[in-house]
Specification:
Strand content: 5-15%
Oligomer: single chain
Strand order of the largest sheet: 3-2-4-1-5
CATH topology: Rossmann fold
Shape: globular
Number of domains: 1
Structural class: alpha/beta
Number of strands: 5
CATH class: Alpha Beta
CATH superfamily: Phosphoglycerate mutase-like
Distance between the termini: 18 Å
Largest sheet: 5 strands, mixed
Length: 198
């Protein structure tokens, strides 16, 4: 699903900072595990502070007016709470559409499994091998959320705090590209803030 232009609002994306799951080197995409557990590490919190400071120009002259939306996973929620506090913005709003892409039977396994899924994405973005949420389905739920915000508001800046795969795939929707190309986009480091619509 592609996101039509022109946009009525501005959309910034932020990946969560380093999490306990990142340190453990595991796939953590099931809300049953990711919502109540596996939050940020101390390093992850420092990454968020540094990223918000580095993004001052991108965030604009009125960061306190930014609306922060986030995945309800613990690692993204903690990132969003800290980012909103640093910006002086309202408390973040939980948005299930921003959840991590579900990785099926790879859940809890080594994060080395990602590479195989991404290889299949390049060949067929609709694949659901091993019960994985397809790149197409992930793109559709994220783009639908953007379109609902486009209908509901105008002139607003949103900071969308989400996960690596979700944000990589969302970038392709903003660029008008197939989600099959999501790993060709610039890698999204922990806590980094980017302009999705640029």
């Amino acid at each position: 699903m592609l996101i039509p232009r022109p946009l009525r609002n501005r959309y910034l994306g932020q990946r969560h900072g380093e999490s306990e799951a990142n340190v453990a080197g595991i796939v953590l995409s099931d809300p049953k595990e990711g919502v109540p557990r596996w939050g940020l590490t101390p390093k992850g919190r420092e990454e968020v502070r540094a990223a918000i400071a580095a993004a001052a120009e991108l965030l604009g002259p009125e960061p306190s007016a930014i609306q922060v939306l986030c995945s309800d996973f613990k690692r993204t929620h903690e990132t969003a709470i800290l980012s909103a506090s640093l910006l002086g913005a309202p408390s973040p709003r939980l948005e299930e559409a921003l959840r991590e892409r579900f990785f099926g039977s790879h859940e809890g396994q080594s994060n080395a499994a990602y590479a195989g899924v991404w290889d299949l994405d390049r060949e067929n973005p609709g694949h659901t091998e091993a019960g994985v949420e397809s790149a197409l389905a992930t793109s559709a739920r994220l783009a639908a959320m953007i379109m609902s915000l486009e209908v509901a508001s105008e002139g607003q800046t949103y900071l969308l705090v989400s996960h690596g795969d979700a944000l990589q795939i969302l970038q392709t929707a903003f660029l008008g590209e197939s989600p099959a190309t999501h790993r060709e986009r610039l890698h999204w480091p922990p806590a980094e803030v980017r302009d999705l619509g640029a």
